[in-house]
Every structure is written in C-alpha cells, then in structure tokens.
Amino acid sequence: MSSFSKLVSGMDMGKIGDFKFYMNKNEYQKLSKSLSATFGSYKPIKGQERLSDAGGFERKISLNGVLVVQPQDALKSLEDYVEAREPLEFTTLRESFEVVIINLNINQSHFLDNGDFTVQDYNLSLKEVYDELV
To answer: What is the value of pTM for the model shown?
Structure first.
C-alpha cells in the first residue's frame, strides 16, 4: 500500500519522513507553495540585459502550525531531519514528492511553573528535490 493510500484511510493530513500531521492534534494551519522558473541572464556589451532559459524550476513549500498541550519534544524529529540534511518524502492528501527541510522555526509560549510550555508554533520551509538526469 502506498503512503498516499495509507494517509487517505485515516485522519492523517500528511507526513514528512516519519513525522505525521494529524487532524486536531498536530495539524498544520497553513500550507503555502511557490513555483519559480529558473533563468540565467547576460548583458551584451552596450545592450540590455537578456534572460536565457536555464531549463528548470524550483518548488518551495511552507507549513505553519500550532501545537497546544503536546509533548515537550513533539517537534524533535523535525529538528533531527534539519540536522541530517537528507531528502525526505513529503506527502499530503493530494500529492507526494521528495523534499529537504531548509528551515525550521519553533516558538514556545505559555509556560508553567515547572518550566514546561503548553504552546508551540512552528514554521517549516521545504524545497523539492529533483533527480538529476544522467
């Protein structure tokens, strides 16, 4: 069974590597995507700058979410993925592709007397990885 089929059968919203986004637990509130064509540029002597197709494009994805009353280390596996710098499978209910985590921002708030926090919000920036043609 593909990971896409497994997602559709449960209450999962998606996953990155082994980190799952669940409805009403650690869901993301916002998913943003951008797709950019890649161009090179050159400027002939005494001429205007000109663009040249570099033959590709770049897809970036951003996920924002808030975890309320979740384990203190709920986002630890995402931190580990950033440090590993390896491609991961990113799957939503609609699509699946390989990505690397470019950036992870975590904010913790609403602290208790023992120092534990009850709210974590995060912003995760991903970039799609493409197989190189040989």
So the answer is: 0.71
The set of residues, in sequence order, having a beta carbon less than 8 Å from that of 7 and lying 6+ positions away, is: 13, 14, 15, 91, 92, 93
- Is 131 exposed, middle or buried (CB count within 10 Å of its CB: 0-12, 13-18, 19+)? exposed
Structure tokens at 3: 């990971």
Instruction: Determine the CATH number of domain 3-37+53-128.
Output: 2.40.30
Q: Where are the domains of the chain?
A: 3-37+53-128
Nearest to 98 by CA among 86, 80, 106: 86
Whether the CB-CB separation of 61 and 90 falls below 8 Å is answered with yes
The confidence band for 99, taking pLDDT boundaries of 50, 70 and 90, is very high
DSSP 42-103: E--TTS--EEEEEEEEEEEEEEEEEEES--TTTTHHHHHHHHHT--EEEEESS-EEEEEEEE
Residue-wise pLDDT for 65-95, tens only, equals 888 888 888 889 999 999 999 999 998 888 8
* Interatomic CA distance for residues 4 and 28, integer angstroms: 18
